[in-house]
UniProtKB/TrEMBL annotation, chain A:
Cell location: Cell membrane
Membrane-spanning parts: 7-29, 70-96, 108-130, 142-163, 190-214, 252-270
Protein topology in the membrane: Multi-pass membrane protein
Entry-linked Gene3D superfamilies: MetI-like (1.10.3720.10)
GO cellular component: plasma membrane
InterPro entries: MetI-like, MetI-like_sf
One Gene Ontology biological process: transmembrane transport
PANTHER family registered for this protein in UniProt: ABC TRANSPORTER PERMEASE PROTEIN MG189-RELATED (PTHR43744:SF12), ABC TRANSPORTER PERMEASE PROTEIN MG189-RELATED-RELATED (PTHR43744)
Protein name per its UniProtKB record: ABC transmembrane type-1 domain-containing protein
Domain ABC transmembrane type-1: 71-270
Keywords recorded for this protein, A-Z: Cell membrane, Membrane, Transmembrane, Transmembrane helix, Transport
UniProtKB/TrEMBL annotation, chain B:
Family matches, as InterPro entries: ABC_transporter_permease (IPR051393), MetI-like (IPR000515), MetI-like_sf (IPR035906)
The protein's name in its UniProt record: ABC transmembrane type-1 domain-containing protein
Superkingdom of the organism of origin: Bacteria
Membrane-protein topology: Multi-pass membrane protein
Keywords: Cell membrane, Membrane, Transmembrane, Transmembrane helix, Transport
PROSITE patterns per the UniProt record, alphabetical: ABC_TM1
Annotated localization: Cell membrane
A Gene Ontology cellular-component term: plasma membrane
Gene Ontology biological process: transmembrane transport
Residue ranges of domain ABC transmembrane type-1 in the record: 81-295
Pfam family, any one: BPD_transp_1
Transmembrane segments: 25-52, 85-106, 118-140, 169-193, 214-233, 276-298
Provenance organism: Sinorhizobium glycinis
Predominant location category: membrane
C-alpha cells in the first residue's frame, strides 16, 4: 500500500515537472494565435481558444522583416553544413577505425585536442582569417569549417569522427576481408559496405548537427552582419523590441514559433528514435 | 591471412601496403586540413595576438605581457569571471543533480508509453535553440505582464524583479539553463543506468535493501563515471554561457550578470581590443584545460569502474 502510494506520488511529481517543461512552448504557440491587442493580457492562456487568429503571423509577413529570407538562409546553412560535416567525419572515422597508415594514433590524439578548444577561445583569429579570405558576411564563413569537418556550430569536428570510428570498430572484420579478396578499392569498400551499414548512425549524427546549426547564434552573430545574410536566431534578435510594444512583440512570438516548428515536427515524428540514438551516443561518448 | 593483412614491416609504401596507406591519408585529409586551418592555426594565433595591441585598423604592435598585466587590474574582468563561476556552480549542480534523479525515477517498470512521453517532455527543450527559448522566457519573467509573477501573485507573493534586479538576474539565467539542459543530462544518465548490470539490483533485493539505500550504495557508485563525464561537459559548457544572458538581461543591471564570453565579445568586437580579447580567451582555454585535466585525474581514482 505504502509503496503504491509512493509510486503514485512519483508519477504526479514527474508529471508536474513535465508540465513545467512543456508550458513555455504551449504559452508561446497559444500567444502566437491570440489577437494582437490582447496577446499578453493576464490571466495567461495555455491553449488556443475560439478567438484564435493568424494576425501575428500576417503582421510578421507583411512587415519589412524578411522572415522568409531568414528561414531560407537557416535551411541552406544547416543543410550544407550537415552534409559536409557528416561526409567528412564519416570517411575520416572509417579510416581511423579500419585502415592502416602512418601516425594514425598520434593524429587521432591530435584531433581529440580540439574537444578542449571551444570556438569562443579562437574567435578573434577566426574572424581575422575569414576577413582575409573575404568570407565575412557570407554563409561560406560558417559552411567552410563545417565542410572540412573542422567544426559545426557548437560541435567540434572530432565528435563526428569519434562517433563514426566507434561505430565502424564494432563491425566484424570478415565483412571487409571479403571485399579485399574481391580486390575492391578502399573507397568502394567504404561506400558500398561501410556506409549502408552505418545508415542509422549517420542519420543520428545528421540530426544532431542539423539542429545545432539551425539553433546556433554565436557564429552567425560574428560572421553574418547584413540583413540579407541573417539566419533565424540573429534575425529574431534584430527585430526584438524591448517588451511593452505589444504589436511588435506579437511578431517576435510568431517568428520564434516558426523557428521552433521544424524542430518540434521532426521530434514528434521521430522522438523514440531520436531519444534512443542520443542514449546510444551517450553510452559511447 | 598474411596475404590479406597489411604488413607494416614491409614499409608503408611497399607495393602491398601502398594503396591502403594512400587511401587512409586521403580519407582523413579533409578533416586534418580543416583542423589545421580552423582550429590549430587560430589557436596559435590567439597566443601570438595576446602579446599584441591590435585594433583591426592600424598595424598590430608587440606589447609583451602588457595584456596579461592589464587583466590582473581589470575589475570588470574579475566581476564577470565571478559571475561565470557562480553561474557554473549552480547550473552544473542543478543540471547534473536533477538529471540523475530524473533518470533514476524514470528508469523503473512503468508503461513504455508514459515513460517515453515523460522522457520526451524533459528532453525536448535541449533540442531547441537557446535564443528561441530565451526569448520566450524573457516574456515569462517580465515583472508586470509576466506569467510567472502572475501565478506567484495568486498565492500572495509580491511581483519579483526577475531580470532587472542585480540579486536575481543570474538566478533567472540559472533557472532557464536548468530548464533547458536538465533533459540532456537525464538522457546521458539513463544511458549510464542501462549499462549497469541487473545482478547488482537482484542482490540488493535479496538482501532486503531499501530503495534509498540501493540508490546510495549501488546506483550512485556505479554511475560515477557517467556523473563525472556529465560534470565535466556541463562545467565546460557553463563557462561558455552567452546567448541566454544576452537575451534575458544583456549582462545587466550594470555588470551584474555579464559572463566571460560576453566580455570577450565586447572587448574584441565592440571595443576592438583584439589583443586583450585574445588574452582573456586564453584564460577561458586554461579553465577548460584544467577542468578536463581534473576529470582525467579523477576518473582514474574516484570513479568506480566495473
Amino acid at each position: 500500500m505504502i509503496s503504491r502510494l509512493r509510486t503514485a506520488l512519483i508519477y504526479v511529481v514527474l508529471g508536474l515537472g513535465a508540465l513545467v517543461m512543456v508550458a513555455p512552448f504551449l504559452w508561446m504557440f497559444t500567444t502566437s494565435f491570440r489577437p494582437v491587442a490582447e496577446a499578453f493580457t493576464l490571466p495567461p492562456r495555455w491553449l488556443p481558444g475560439l478567438d484564435s487568429s493568424l494576425e501575428s503571423y500576417r503582421r510578421l509577413l507583411a512587415s519589412d522583416v524578411p522572415i522568409g529570407r531568414f528561414f531560407w538562409n537557416s535551411t541552406v546553412l544547416a543543410t550544407t553544413v550537415t552534409l559536409g560535416y557528416v561526409a567528412t567525419t564519416t570517411i575520416a572515422g572509417y579510416a581511423f577505425a579500419r585502415l592502416r597508415f602512418p601516425f594514425k594514433n598520434a593524429l587521432f590524439a591530435l584531433l581529440l585536442v580540439s574537444l578542449m578548444v571551444p570556438i569562443q577561445t579562437t574567435l578573434v583569429p577566426l574572424f581575422l582569417l575569414m576577413r582575409w579570405l573575404g568570407l565575412v558576411d557570407s554563409q561560406w564563413s560558417i559552411i567552410v569549417p563545417g565542410l572540412t569537418g573542422a567544426f559545426a556550430p557548437g560541435m567540434s569536428g572530432v565528435f563526428g569522427i569519434f562517433l563514426m570510428r566507434q561505430f565502424f570498430l564494432t563491425l566484424p572484420k570478415e565483412l571487409f576481408e571479403a571485399a579485399r579478396v574481391d580486390n575492391a578499392g578502399h573507397f568502394r569498400t567504404f561506400w558500398s559496405i561501410a556506409v549502408p551499414l552505418a545508415g542509422p548512425q549517420i542519420a543520428a549524427l545528421s540530426v544532431i548537427i542539423f539542429t545545432m546549426t539551425w539553433n546556433d547564434y554565436f557564429m552567425p552573430l560574428i560572421f553574418l552582419n547584413s540583413v540579407d545574410q541573417m539566419v533565424l536566431p540573429v534575425g529574431i534578435m534584430s527585430i526584438r523590441d524591448p517588451v511593452g510594444n505589444s504589436s511588435a512583440t506579437s511578431e517576435v512570438i510568431a517568428a520564434v514559433s516558426l523557428s521552433i516548428l521544424p524542430v518540434l515536427l521532426v521530434f514528434l515524428v521521430a522522438q523514440r528514435w531520436i531519444i534512443d540514438s542520443f542514449v546510444r551516443a551517450g553510452v559511447k561518448g | 591471412m598474411t596475404s590479406i593483412a597489411n604488413d607494416a614491416a614491409a614499409g608503408w609504401f611497399s607495393p602491398q601496403n601502398r594503396k591502403e596507406t594512400i587511401a587512409g591519408l586521403l580519407f582523413i585529409a579533409p578533416a586534418l586540413i580543416g583542423f589545421a586551418v580552423f582550429v590549430a592555426g587560430p589557436m596559435a594565433a590567439t597566443v601570438v595576438l595576446s602579446l599584441m595591441k591590435y585594433d583591426l585598423f592600424s598595424n598590430p604592435s608587440f606589447v609583451g605581457l602588457a595584456n596579461f598585466e592589464a587583466m590582473l587590474d581589470d575589475r570588470r574582468l574579475w566581476k564577470v569571471l565571478g559571475n561565470t563561476a557562480f553561474f557554473a556552480v549552480f547550473a552544473v549542480a542543478g543540471n547534473v543533480g536533477l538529471g540523475v534523479v530524473l533518470a533514476v525515477l524514470l528508469n523503473r517498470n512503468m508503461s513504455k508509453t508514459v515513460q517515453y512521453a515523460y522522457r520526451a517532455a524533459y528532453f525536448f527543450p535541449s533540442l531547441v535553440g537557446l535564443i528561441f527559448v530565451a526569448v520566450i522566457w524573457q516574456f515569462l519573467f517580465q515583472r508586470d505582464i509576466g506569467v510567472i509573477n502572475y501565478y506567484l501573485g495568486l498565492v500572495g507573493i509580491e511581483p519579483v524583479r526577475w531580470l532587472s534586479s542585480a540579486r536575481n538576474a543570474l538566478w533567472s539565467v540559472i533557472i532557464l539553463d536548468i530548464w533547458k539542459n536538465v533533459g540532456f543530462a537525464m538522457l546521458i544518465a539513463t544511458a549510464g543506468l542501462q549499462s549497469i548490470s541487473k545482478d547488482y539490483y537482484d542482490a540488493a533485493r535479496v538482501d532486503g535493501s531499501s530503495s534509498l539505500r540501493t540508490f546510495w550504495q549501488i546506483t550512485l557508485p556505479l554511475l560515477s563515471p557517467t556523473i563525472l563525464f556529465l560534470l565535466t561537459m556541463n562545467t565546460i559548457g557553463a563557462f561558455k554561457v552567452f546567448e541566454s544572458i544576452v537575451v534575458l538581461t544583456n549582462g545587466g543591471p550594470g555588470d551584474a550578470s555579464r559572463s566571460l564570453v560576453m566580455y570577450i565579445y565586447e572587448q574584441g568586437f565592440k571595443s576592438f581590443n583584439m589583443g586583450y580579447a585574445s588574452a582573456i580567451s586564453l584564460l577561458l582555454l586554461t579553465i577548460t584545460v584544467i577542468v578536463t585535466a581534473i576529470q582525467f585525474a579523477l576518473s582514474k581514482r574516484w570513479a568506480f569502474y566495473e
